[in-house]
Design goal:
The structure holds two protein chains of two kinds. By secondary structure, chain A is an alpha/beta fold. Chain A has seven helices and 15 strands. Helices cover about 30% and strands about 30% of the residues of chain A. In chain A, strands 11-10-9-12-8-1-6-7-13 form a nine-stranded mixed β-sheet, with helices on both faces. Chain A has a two-stranded antiparallel sheet with strand order 2-5. In chain A, strands 3-4 form a two-stranded antiparallel ribbon. Chain A is globular. Chain B is built from eight helices and 18 strands. A seven-stranded parallel β-sheet of chain B has the order 7-11-6-1-4-5-12, with helices on both faces. In chain B, strands 15-14-16-17-18 form a five-stranded parallel β-sheet. Chain B has a three-stranded antiparallel β-sheet with strand order 8-9-10. In chain B, helix 3 packs across helix 4 and helix 5 packs parallel to helix 8. Classes of the chains: A alpha/beta, B alpha/beta. The interface between A and B is large, with 82 and 90 residues. Strand 11 of chain A pairs antiparallel with strand 13 of chain B, so a sheet runs across the interface. The structure holds flavin-adenine dinucleotide (FAD) and adenosine monophosphate (AMP). Chain A: This is Electron transfer flavoprotein small subunit. Chain A: Keywords: Oxidoreductase.
Chain lengths: ~260, ~325
């Protein structure tokens, strides 16, 4: 069973600074980490590997420093760690990112399942998975909360919510799934693997390695059909909250008035 | 001469009912099409018997009804394949899709097939002086708003539900419906084995949401909140902390990785107000917060607050509401 996991490196949202005046995100203000939703994707892959004697390949497209994220992925159970990094890849939107990742997967050729996270907490689009699936011309399912079964030909998954219903879906392999955070609980890396992760070889691929699968003008900023023309950092609106303490009657009469006002009662 | 013209709204139907986001897309689509000086089309894919005239009444100049049994169940590949073929023939300049779970799962495939840009989960759209569609969307976990332009055609965006007003319904508007058959009706790579009900409620449709956080100590304590919810005719919500603790199902979770709700009244009980929770409820019309810690951030977003122990306050509220009946 050959499982590919797409993992993105993102800034720690609790720490990253946003400049309201200039409308920019200061990425240097926070450490980078694995996209939290991708931890569930990685765990799902490692669980499959343990059940079916498989091999997990993690792919990250990002700057060279993202090597650290791949070592973290190794510590959590990945076998092969691949970094797609090149100056031409920078400034990529979801389409250019998906094309680059799909180019590498086409080169890889032999794979059964691709797993990605529900969304990235910075890009926030949940588009990369579907776009990769379409470029590779393979079926996909989003919001997967359970992998019911898998054989060498097909996978059966439970989709959490489509049109207000759950769905049990069977797909021919290779297929791509995007998993929800409820699919599993992340296990912590062992000390042994953590130590080993410092010594492993992270494979790096640039444009020149993928040139049979993608051309320069389809990558990075040049290959991106969407352009961010402006970023606005909204100022936090702090409400005038009427706070009560030790005065239940006052509180309740206010609440009752509001409920009636909103025609809830 | 423009090679592409017209604004196309992909209307969504769920098991035979047209999703309300479709009418909202028509409302906004009308505005955009007027700015661009081009017509507003709507495409809907479904089985027999859809009320497609409603799409005309709510603003579409022309409705295309692609009718085939294969569209009775939501399966992305077939929808995408047919929508892409339709777009290639019809050549709209703008395509709007609802950012529902199904819309967000189909749209990336549609955009990738057409080799065009896609902007996810937009909260607003406008046309600039040069006639470009500018798409506004939150990113960085809702911390910023990005203004995005697409340099390829068609410009495709998914639009959040309940962000815009529905198109004004006018039954005098002319009916113009073209029925089409599917280009493709089989997908041998994917099979829906079973469809079953998710949960018997939809928290995003609730008028009142009472949400519970780590302020409660054990699962059994949810009972008093259920009673409160019943009295108010609402739904029970939860922070991620108590969903993760296994106290309640994930369909109840409000926030960045749960549902985004816009009720008339939101009551947050024992919830601190972490940014990821706020992202899912700050647009409620009225927010009431109950928390024992007067410095909890939730009070910065609330209209009415009570600093106190919820184990004391909630039973009092239940009693007072009963007395009020
Ligand atoms: C990628 C990501 C996505 C996330 N998505 C979501 C999401 O969708 N939804 C979400 O909710 N969170 C989400 N979170 C988690 C979020 O950051 C917080 O951890 C979570 O919201 C905290 O839940 P809480 O307020 O219930 O718990 P706490 O932060 O622990 O707050 C509990 C509150 O209860 C109060 N309290 C305690 N006892 C009492 C009492 N007896 N009476 C009254 N008040 C009392 C305390 O003063 C405190 O303010 C996400 C986090 C990440 C990283
Ligand atoms: N640069 C990237 N490298 C690897 N995987 C990515 C990258 N960007 C997005 N992904 C994957 O696609 C998913 C959706 O991301 P997004 O479309 O940015 O919300 C993520 O959870 C990852 O699994």
């Amino acid at each position: 069973m050959k499982v590919v996991v797409l993992v993105k490196e993102v800034p720690d949202m609790g720490k990253v600074r946003f400049d309201t005046e200039k409308g920019v995100v200061d990425r240097s203000s926070a450490d980078a980490q694995i996209n939290p939703f991708d931890l569930n994707a990685l765990q799902a892959a490692v669980d499959l590997k343990n059940l079916y004697n498989g091999e997990v390949t993690v792919i990250t497209m990002g700057p060279l420093r993202a090597e650290r994220t791949l070592r973290d992925a190794y510590a959590r159970g990945a076998d092969n760690c691949v970094l797609l990094s090149d100056k031409h890849f920078s400034g990529a939107d979801t389409f250019a990112t998906s094309r680059t990742i799909a180019a590498y997967i086409s080169k890889l050729y032999d794979y059964d399942v691709i797993i990605c996270g529900e969304k990235s907490i910075d890009g926030d689009t949940a588009q990369v998975g579907g776009e990769v699936a379409d470029i590779l011309n393979i079926p996909h399912a989003y919001y997967v909360e359970k992998i019911n079964s898998i054989s060498d030909k097909e996978i059966v998954v439970t989709i959490n919510s489509l049109c207000g219903s759950k769905q049990l879906r069977k797909m021919k392999l290779p297929a791509l799934i995007s998993v929800t955070k409820n699919i599993n609980r992340n296990e912590l890396p062992t000390v042994k693997r953590k130590l080993k992760s410092l010594k492993i070889q992270v494979e790096k691929f640039g444009l020149s390695n993928l040139i049979d699968y993608i051309s320069e003008e389809d990558t990075g900023f040049k290959g991106s059909p969407t352009k961010v023309i402006k970023v606005v950092v909204p100022k936090e609106k702090i409400k005038e909250c009427k706070v009560y303490k030790d005065d239940f009657r006052g509180f309740f009469s206010d609440v009752l008035g509001a409920l009636k006002d909103k025609k809830v009662l | 001469m423009k090679t592409h013209s017209g604004v196309l709204v992909i209307a969504e139907q769920c098991f035979g009912d047209i999703h309300r986001v479709s009418y909202e897309l028509l409302g906004k689509g009308r505005e955009i099409s007027q700015k661009l000086g081009s017509p507003l089309y709507s495409l809907i894919l479904g089985g027999e018997g859809l009320n497609v005239e409603e799409l005309n009444y709510c603003g579409a100049d022309k409705v295309f009804y692609m009718k085939n049994k294969c569209f009775e169940k939501p399966e992305e590949f077939l929808f995408k394949e047919n929508i892409v073929r339709f777009i290639e023939e019809q050549k709209p300049e703008v395509v709007l899709i609802g950012a529902t779970s199904f819309g967000r799962s189909c749209a990336p495939r549609i955009a990738a097939s057409l080799k065009t840009g896609l902007t996810a989960d937009c909260t607003d759209l406008y046309v600039d002086e040069e006639g470009n569609l500018i798409q506004i969307r939150p990113a960085f976990s809702n911390n910023i708003l990005a203004h995005i332009k697409t340099i390829t055609i068609p410009q495709i965006a998914t639009i959040r539900y309940k962000e815009f007003n529905e198109g004004k319904r006018d039954t005098n508007r002319g009916i113009n419906i073209t029925v089409l058959d599917a280009y493709v009706s089989l997908n041998d790579k994917s099979e829906i084995i079973e469809i079953f009900k998710d949960s018997d409620f939809d928290i995003t449709e609730a008028k009142v949401v009472v949400s519970v956080g780590r302020g409660i100590k054990k699962k059994e304590d949810l009972e008093m909140f259920k009673e409160l919810v019943e009295l108010l005719g609402g739904h029970l919500g939860a922070s991620r902390a108590i969903v993760d603790a296994g106290f309640i199902g994930s369909a109840h979770q409000v926030g960045y990785s749960g549902s985004r709700v816009k009720p008339k009244v939101y009551i947050a009980c024992g919830i601190s107000g972490a940014p990821q929770h706020i992202a899912g409820m700050k647009e409620a019309e009225l927010i009431i917060a109950i928390n024992s810690d007067s410095s909890a951030p939730i009070f910065n977003y609330a209209d009415i607050g009570y600093v106190g122990d919820l184990y004391e306050i909630i039973p009092k509220m239940i009693q007072a509401l009963k007395n009020n009946k």
